[in-house]
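Whether sequence alone determines local backbone shape is best considered at the level of individual chains. The sequence in question and its structure tokens are set out directly beneath this paragraph.

***
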Amino acid sequence: MTAALIAQRTTHPLRAAHSARATLVAVRRATREAAPRPVTVWWARLAEHGAASREHSLVAVNSTRFPDGTPVDLTTLESRGRRPAGWLVDLRYRACDGTPVGVAFGDAVAGTCPPLWFAEVSHASSPVPATSLLAFRGDAFAPGTLVAPHQVAAAGLPMADRVGEVRWWTRSGIVDAVTVDPGLRRRGVARSLVTLGEALRLLRGWAPLRSDGRLTDAGADWLDAAPVHWSPRLAPRCEVLPEEADGDALTGVARLLKGF
């Protein structure tokens, strides 16, 4: 009789149902973690308090909810800080004139990246229109702030203090160089810069960022581990570029993805 009662208790329907639910949750969680990231990235325009908000956000979302590259205007809704699942980057800008003011990154992009603020530089002397995004550390500006060069100068900082940079040709979208301070490589700085650059080019109406296949060995290694949604923009490697002679140098002409 005692053995029978024990058997009944161990197979009680409520306990069995609870165990089944726990197993199902664990399976679903493992499936989500193991599922590959989608290739598609669509863009949501959000507003904290609806269309009348002084600032709007341009948010890249890595999900299959909409076809790749689709712009979705959600500014008539009050986002109240909420972003779609799978978001990668949130570029905030002034609604009145489109001036970017700040950026936030999703965990899939930021990784172990330290707090950074950024400056946008237009290369007016370049024969081909080009733009750079520079990453800085320190407390001159709050993390995620995006400023102009004169604001960097007003803060008493030289541009040489940057810890990372991405430079690209705005008409073609071809990335000319991505460089990162050696002490910060493999921490998501380069990925954050390129992702911010992609959001900025969309805000500006420029061509999508892409690779033309001319890579250093370091750049090729870095792109081998790039997010899957970058793959449509990456041309097969067609030319091997030499590394910079100065291994600690941050900049170089036509040295695509020297540092990572």
Notes: Confidence is low (pLDDT under 50) at residues 1-10, 30-34, 246-260. Residues 13-34 form the longest helix (22 residues).
